[in-house]
Amino acid sequence: MRHPDPHSLDATDRDILRELQADGRITNVELARRVGLSAPPCLRRVRRLEEVGVIRGYHADLDPVAMGWEITFFALVGLESQKLPVLEGFEAMVREWPEVRECHMIRGGGDFLLRLVARNPAHENELTQRLTGAPTVMRVQTLQTIRTSRDEAGVPVER
Fold first, then answer.
1. CA distance 59 to 104
2. Which of 15, 63, 93, 124 could cross-link with 118 by S-S, CB 3.0 to 4.6 Å?
3. Cα separation of 146 and 131, whole Å?
4. What are phi and psi of 64, to 5 degrees?
5. Which alpha helices (H) appear in 10-157, and where do they start and end?
6. What is the DSSP letter of 50?
7. What digits encode the pLDDT tens for the residues 95-152?
8. What domains are defined for the chain?
């Protein structure tokens, strides 16, 4: 999908995005009021932002601990090669693991950075062993989260 040039978004589009990012459950009527539009043109703008892929979707932000996921940790993974089939194979493997919440191909210190959740320390160890034992994985460094002082969804929306 081809995204619009960020500079082509006008101030009203940006206001809409800022409001929706802060509260995805806001009604169209309330959103329109906050951004200074009537409801129909506001809805048209939202639909256009969805169609061009600026708005990727809506979701509930669940508390991992309340859902039984006591541990959040990161894994820095190095593979045996950077050949495309090896990279794609690793991505396909971790896409099947529900505990892998983010997977980023990186440069400078490894091949992938993963964010995972685990129910308890034994589960974290199991996931780490699954990673280290996976085909093409050469090294895994895990980093456990002690405290999260900031966890903002989305991106800054500037005027």
1. 21
2. 124
3. 21
4. -60, -40
5. 11-22, 28-35, 39-51, 84-95, 121-132
6. H
7. 999 999 999 999 988 899 999 999 999 999 999 999 999 999 999 999 999 999 999 9
8. 10-51 (1.10.10.10), 71-144 (3.30.70.920)
**Whose CA is closest to 74, among 118, 9, 135?**
118
Do residues 49 and 55 touch, judged by C-beta distance below 8 A? Answer: yes
DSSP lists the bridge partners of residue 75 as: 114, 142
Q: How long a stretch of residues is the chain?
A: 159
Full strand arrangement of the beta sheet holding 137-144: 100-105, 112-118, 71-79, 137-144
pTM of the predicted model over 0.85: yes
Contact 54, 2 (CB under 8 A): no
Q: For residues 1 and 129, what is the distance between their CA atoms, to the nearest angstrom? A: 37
CA nearest to 54, candidates 9, 101, 24: 9
Quick one: tokens of 10?
Answer: 């006008």
How many angstroms separate the Cα of 94 from the Cα of each of 49, 88, 124, 126, 129?
30, 10, 15, 14, 13
Buried b (16+ CB within 10 A) or exposed e, 103-118: beeeeeebbbbbbbbb
